[in-house]
Amino acid sequence: MSSDFIQYEEDTNQVKCWISYIRTLVDVQTLQQTILPVLKSDKWKTLEELKRGIPIENIIITIDTDVIREKLLDGFILISLSRYGLPSALIKATINKARDVSLPEVEFSVVGPKEAFVESIESNINLIRKRIISDKLRIVELKVGDLSSTKLAVLYIEGICDEQNVQTVIQRIEDIQFDQISDSSFISQIIADKTTSPFPQLLDTERPDRVSSILAEGKIGIIVDGSPHVLIGPTTLVEFFSAFDDYFYNWIAASFIRLIRLFAVSFSLLITPIYVAVLTYHYELIPSDLLGTLVSSRRGVPLPPILEAIFLELVIELLREAGARLPTKVGQTIGIVGGIVLGTASVEAGLTSNILLIFVALAALASFTTPIYAMGNTIRMLRFPYILFAQWLGLLGVVLCFCFMLAHLLMLTSLGRPFLEPIYPPRTIDMKDAFIRLPFSFMSKRPQQLRTKKTTRFSSIKSKKNKDIDE
């Protein structure tokens, strides 16, 4: 028997009872201040009378040993009239220890709300309930993990969300065969349509405002107890490059920033492979004025372009990983000092050219513009296959690698919905919030790929007719 399992006999004024609980899961103050005074009173003789006398809502009387075992592990106090007697009363006295709501760390924004999810599932649901004050918000609670019995909640809005999507999510979660679930990333990997894909197929976010907005579109949220990130699905590729800040700015500025972000991701993915391809096979593509600069920068470099590029890319990844694993202040120092020292030393030692160093540094900087961290990791990893294909076939190899990636994206789905939508299948109406963001007056329809029950968000005709009172 576990050392934190407490069981003792309590003498009351009327009857004797046995109290059992797990000390590390129970709030002792609730036991001493709320339950024991009622037990020692003469106002009860049966468990039903005890249930009516204790001012706690969640009290269960049962003879099911499986329920008793489950509730004891969930922070309930067991009261029975004999040591091994049934039925027994289960009183909820769970101790709640969780950090306070803090600022977003991964998806920080200059404007907009400054709240982020925490590790408590109840607190996270509360943050969403505050933003969606509707009786249509549905929450389905489940448990996963043979050992952990992790609490999980599936959120959707009834009357808007497609029931097929809801049933797909619930079925996949119920079919999970895994002993320990400690974070939402476990769920994202297990229920993904294609687990061998490097692309994340469920969007994870730490912002309650983003989750509430996406739920209103007709999507589904998955909250896992112990995780400060909420999963959203079904999702599309373009959503991973859209920050929620885009909706806080004027649509022209937001569209410009979104295009800059897409260009930065493309630059981060292709600039190093193009450098390797051009210097290996396509010297004739280099302008004569630039050719002299490239030749002088590579003078004395003994490595071919492919080894030079892989060396610098690995150095950048090592610095990034070291900065992420070390304490915050030390990690920032290592990243800055290490980048300057290693970059300068590698150029002076003749291991790399200064032009490639600039390209790799810009590519690393551009990769940080990806709003979703999981997609940023994918972009970082994809650069290496592109570099190898560039060394193999030059620019043709870069195009071939892009075709392989595009074919993979065309086959990829998120909860059964096309991952590349609205590019393929082409849906013009969903382009209003893809590469650019049009004004809110153009967003009267929900995304077509979600197959929502209520496709219209508001009347576009009435919104255009509304005038100011002085007009």
UniProtKB/TrEMBL annotation:
Keyword Protease: no
Superkingdom classification of source: Bacteria
Keywords (A to Z) from UniProt: Membrane, Transmembrane, Transmembrane helix
Membrane topology according to the record: Multi-pass membrane protein
Secretion signal span: none
Localisation: Cell membrane; Membrane
InterPro entries cross-referenced by the UniProt entry: Spore_Ger (IPR004995), UPF0353/GerABKA_families (IPR050768)
Predominant localisation class: membrane
Keyword Cell membrane annotated: no
Transmembrane feature ranges: 259-281, 355-374, 386-411
PANTHER family recorded: LEUCINE ZIPPER PROTEIN 4, SPORE GERMINATION PROTEIN
Family: Belongs to the GerABKA family.
Identification of the protein by name: Spore germination protein
Natural source organism: Metabacillus rhizolycopersici
Lineage, top ranks: Bacteria, Bacillati, Bacillota, Bacilli, Bacillales
